[in-house]
Amino acid sequence: MSLPKTLADDVAKNLVMVARLLDSDPERAYGYSRVALRLASRVAAVREAAGFASYVTERYSEALTEFRASRRMTGSAELWPVMADCERGLGRPERALEMAGAPEVKQLDKAGQVEMRLVAAGARSDLGQFEAAVVTLESPELASTAVQPWTARLRYAYADALLKVGREDEAREWFSKAAEADQSGATDAAERLARLDGIEFVDALDADDDEVEHADDLPEEGEGEFAEGPGEDYYEDDEEEDEEEGFGPNRSTSEEK
Q: Whole-model pTM above 0.70?
């Protein structure tokens, strides 16, 4: 979808703020995402960004709406794993498992398939099926010695699953492997490993000293938008389109396929 230049610039500025704040200040990122939605709800990238802003702030119902809209616009299955994880967040692990067995999974790249495996294992744990969670994570990707962007998280999830079934020695080994692969600090594998070894960490910093500092050029609190013009009703037609595609609130996930 093509936007007028001024509107496109305003939308782009808000999307940049979403990306910059998503990890450090997710609530502010969410605010910017809603502005972008008001301005350009029929742009797939806007719906996806809004979905992730809702997802990280645990607004799972909103996130599902945005991810479904983006998928409908692009035809891509890329967001399938995070949509399944939203189902978990909404207390519907059975739906997440159904989605893990859907044809869309075959359309995912390797990273997406690993992500789907992580979601499925989490759903098994949600249902108290801890042994099944362990089995779900046992895969060629887990056995590989090559380090990929998802390696640390996969090893960490496996270690956590092992710990839940009482296999502490193996869990310790896999937390160690996860820590070795985790160069970006995506997990707390090192801390989990230390706790298994009986080492306790004490945070010497006061909570007030631990606040996230924002770049000088970021807007102050309350300045959560770059445009004041009228926008679209960004949920217009979404409910009707979801029902047509089988995403209605009373449909089962099997009907979503």
A: yes
